[in-house]
Design brief:
Blueprint (H helix, E strand, L loop, with lengths): L9 E4 L13 E3 L2 E4 L4 E9 L4 E3 L5 E3 L2 E5 L3 E3 L2 H4 L2 H15 L1
Antiparallel strand pairs: 1-2, 1-8, 3-4, 4-7, 5-6
This protein binds zinc ion (2 copies).
Length: 100
Amino acid sequence: MKNRFEVGQKIIAIKDHAEGYFKKGDAFNVLQIDKTCCVNVVRIFNAKNISGGMKCVCGCSHKTNSYLFNENSFNLFTEMSEMSYNEALNVVSNNQLITK
Ligand SMILES: [Zn+2]
Ligand SMILES: [Zn+2]
């Protein structure tokens, strides 16, 4: 499975992390890409993971000294991702006005 992101890209969280490491809408730079046995993961923090491990979505433990997160919790950061839903709707209706 190919990683969706590359090191250096800006990404935005699309959901709150269950343990509060990030919130929906938080933006990060991809510092490292990696994979566990079943998901692609990204490193977004410089801080060391002192627990020395992470749990994969399947439940198995992986040894790592970095905080790694499932890449599916993120989307590539674009100007659109900064827009609220209502702003996005306005853009759509404005475009419709122009084409009428
Ligand atoms: Zn595993
Ligand atoms: Zn797994």
